[in-house]
Amino acid sequence: MSTGQKVRFPPPSSRVIPVTDPTMPLPLDILFDPDRPLEIEIGCGKGRFLAARALKFPETQYLGIERMLSRVRRLDKKACRLKLDNLRVLRLEAFYTFYYLLPPHRVRTVYVFFPDPWPKRRHHSRRLFSPLFLDALWNRLEIGGTVQVATDHLNYFTEIRACLSADPRFKEVPAMERTEEEQTEFEHIFRQQNLPIGQCAFQTLPAEEKALPPLAIDPEMEPRNDKESEHFYGFDEENENG
Ligand SMILES: C[S@@+](CC[C@H](N)C(=O)[O-])C[C@H]1O[C@@H](n2cnc3c(N)ncnc32)[C@H](O)[C@@H]1O
User: Fold this and answer.
1) pTM of the entire structure?
2) Is residue 9 part of a domain?
3) Of 47, 112, 160, 189, which residue is the least packed, with the fewest Cβ within 10 Å?
């Protein structure tokens, strides 16, 4: 690593990315080394999987997105204790983050393990996987990048696999294997109980680039100009601990 990079990517005192304004696009090239791969886990919980991977693959950079504060704090503590300088955590809603705050085609792998299944039919609209999420997912993954999915909710699994299979921008590839240490918290519990788990993986294919259609959200929540981001996601000590 060059001296310049050392100055640009200092090990932060907390691995939590400070968010003072959630409408600011994430300046990934400031938060992460643009020359190293970036992988994201959506709904990373306490980060059992992510921390194990970050320890095993120090050259790869990992971002966990998790909306529950207590879980974000647990992962932060673990990452600091293990001195994982290649792992950061973002406390934001993942669909919004993917749709609005990430740059195009930067992420090598997206992991979605045991997403909330919202089993009641009237709650299905709250599920992460939808045609709009697939648009954002394809757009944020590198071409040739992969999404890895696992869930114990087999109906949801069938639905996720069907919607990815029906989308010509994705092709199915073998799902990853995880060692015992790499299993997520939920997976660890379910495997101990011998519960069935559905797993699949899909790779992105080249396709026509289309702008993501605007969502019907409060204008206050629409993202702002990229250039303003640096002030909000800077690395100064005060911001880092804020
Ligand atoms: C069922 S738990 C699974 C946690 C972890 N992936 C595991 O397998 O142990 C789902 C996690 O996703 C988080 N989550 C659900 N929807 C989310 C969203 N839209 N944005 C960010 N986090 C979300 C929840 O807070 C929870 O920690």
Assistant:
1) 0.89
2) no
3) 189
Residue 6 inside a domain? The answer is no
163-169, long-range: CB < 8 A, 24+ apart: 163/129, 163/131, 163/134, 164/134, 164/200, 164/202, 165/202, 167/134, 167/138, 168/205, 168/207, 169/134, 169/138, 169/204, 169/205, 169/207
Using a 6 Å cutoff on CB, does residue 185 contact ligand 1?
yes
pLDDT digits (tens, 9 = 90+) for 87-140: 999 999 999 999 999 999 999 999 999 999 999 989 998 999 999 999 999 999
Alpha carbons 1 and 5: distance in angstroms, whole number: 6
Whether 116 sits among the annotated catalytic residues: the reply is yes
Place of tokens 């673990």: 78
Cα 46 to ligand 1 centroid, rounded to whole Å:
9
From the list 116, 135, 167, 226, the catalytic residue is 116
Number of structural domains (the chain) is 1
**How many Å apart are CA 28 and CA 107, to the nearest integer?**
10
Residue 162 belongs to a domain with what CATH number? Answer: 3.40.50.150
How far is the centre of ligand 1, averaged over its atoms, from the C-alpha of 10 (Å)? 28
Task: Say yes or no: CB of residue 66 within 6 Å of ligand 1.
Answer: yes
